[in-house]
């Protein structure tokens, strides 16, 4: 059984690869840059570009299951090549696919749902724990983070838990045509996160709350598009309930509790010091 992991060098993809290896699977990792993949030696690393489906033909040879991202790794835009990818997967004999889903049905989701593939949606909350890396530079240099709406709540998830669920779904039966919403085990505000971060690195961290206009200015200086800026500002002004709703899905599927933010920080401490 060969399982193809797309987005294999990303924050989530690396964990999908690791968890599949631990489960004894034969893993083939798809990446645009095989020379810099830095994945375990037992992984077969292959070149492929999801925006150019014909490059996937060699990667799909002999594959029976696949973890599929639904966005372009270059700019995170929704992939427009879903129909072509799915057609090639079916022709190659792929039976099962997990989709890392962002909650909106795009061309990949539509093509997979219309196919003969056994699909499973993996839908994390809005935030991964790895998003905290965005604070690393200002914490190291100033001991400060600057952010919108400090009281916004998040049930953010450890990327390894997504990897664990994906591995279970790809290697076991009983998950076909289901959508799993995955959350962490706790709901945290930004001050909660900074309290845990301060305890981990042994340093006080100051929180500076930005106004909506200050956030817009910061994002414009970073070159972010206006529609994305307005989406982010609007989201923090009125976050959806699902961003702070706790669900037991990770433990139900994997048999162990979801990892905490404190665990993530202990694993990534060196990034903040």
Automatic annotation (TrEMBL):
- UniProt domain NmrA-like: residue ranges: 2-97
Note the InterPro entries from the entry. Ergot_Alk_Oxidoreductase, NAD(P)-bd_dom_sf, NmrA-like
Q: Transmembrane region positions?
A: none
Q: What is this protein called?
A: NAD-dependent epimerase/dehydratase family protein
Question: What is the native source organism of this protein?
Answer: Paenibacillus paeoniae
């Amino acid at each position: 059984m060969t399982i193809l992991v797309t987005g294999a060098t990303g924050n989530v993809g690396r964990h999908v690869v690791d968890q599949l290896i631990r489960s004894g699977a034969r893993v083939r990792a798809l990446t645009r840059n095989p020379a810099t993949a830095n994945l375990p030696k037992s992984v077969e690393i292959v070149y492929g570009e999801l925006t150019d489906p014909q490059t996937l033909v060699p990667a799909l040879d002999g594959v029976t299951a696949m973890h599929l991202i639904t966005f372009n790794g270059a700019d995170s835009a929704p992939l427009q090549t879903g129909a072509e990818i799915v057609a090639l997967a079916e022709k190659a004999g792929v039976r099962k696919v997990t989709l890392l889903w962002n909650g909106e049905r795009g061309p990949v989701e539509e093509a997979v749902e219309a196919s003969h593939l056994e699909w499973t949606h993996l839908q994390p909350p809005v935030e991964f724990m790895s998003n905290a890396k965005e604070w690393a530079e200002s914490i190291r240099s100033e001991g400060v983070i600057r952010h919108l709406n400090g009281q916004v709540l998040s049930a953010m998830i450890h990327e390894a838990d997504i990897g664990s669920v994906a591995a279970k779904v790809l290697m076991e039966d009983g998950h076909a045509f289901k959508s799993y919403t995955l959350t962490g085990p706790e709901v945290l505000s930004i001050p909660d996160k900074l309290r845990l971060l301060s305890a981990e690195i042994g340093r006080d961290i100051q929180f500076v709350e930005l106004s909506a206009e200050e956030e817009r200015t910061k994002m414009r200086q970073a070159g972010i598009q206006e529609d994305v800026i307005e989406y982010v500002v609007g989201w923090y002004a009125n976050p959806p309930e699902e961003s702070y709703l706790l669900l037991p899905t990770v433990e139900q599927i994997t048999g162990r509790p979801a990892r905490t933010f404190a665990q993530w920080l202990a694993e990534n401490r060196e990034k903040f010091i």
